[in-house]
Amino acid sequence: MDEKISRKNFLTRASIVGLGALVGGFATQIANADKTQNWSANKWPWPYVELDPETTAQIAYEEWYRLWCGGTVIYSVFHQLAQKVGEPYKSFPIDPFAIFEGGLAGWGTLCGSVNGAAVVASCIIGPMTQEGCEDGHIIASNMLDWYSHANMPIFVPKNPKANKKTIVHTVSESPLCHISVGKWMHASGYPINSPERKDRCARVAASVAYKLVEELNKWHKGKYDENIAWFAPKKVGITAQFNCAECHGAKIPKPPTPLKKL
Fold this sequence. Notes:
Structural class: mainly alpha
Shape: globular
Number of helices: 9
Number of strands: 0
């Protein structure tokens, strides 16, 4: 966690969250939705107004039971902006991102909530191309780091559907759904299909939505000036999490030594 890299260096290095093709495809679809509109989804940043983190988190909590972790984070932000701003948010197809559920179709990879947050940040701020802005990538990357070390869940809904009196909190030390959910299930004793586990994940998604809006509001005010918290290619020579040894132990494969410049 002590590895820091400057914004300038980060912009010229490998991307951590590869969403360019996804955003570009949706941008083309949205731009063709209504030719009479005086806007372009291919021009960044998208129009943004500051949102209330508490309101956004509550929306995410309620919507989790329809769209699960990734879709609900996107909905919690874009639904409000569709009402406050209009396009390109009104035409953005949110429901397909329910596929992020369970770490992408139940495979337990990256938690859908941070996946959804990355989509939102990249869409609003724009893709990190050589001509673009790196803030969306930095926000996404640093949210992965924040998620891994937060005592989840943080957000407390107004009317929780389960865990009404108390809830177990755990630190995942990983952005992976499998580890995040697995550690909580082990600590709480509740199985995957229990109302308590579902409520917990709804609260986690709401917590991510809250944090995301805080970061977007700072960016909108011109006050986002963060460095990247973890950049694995520089630290360990391969794209990776910061905690490989927790699962892999002595069997961690070592990447080849980088070639020296001729």
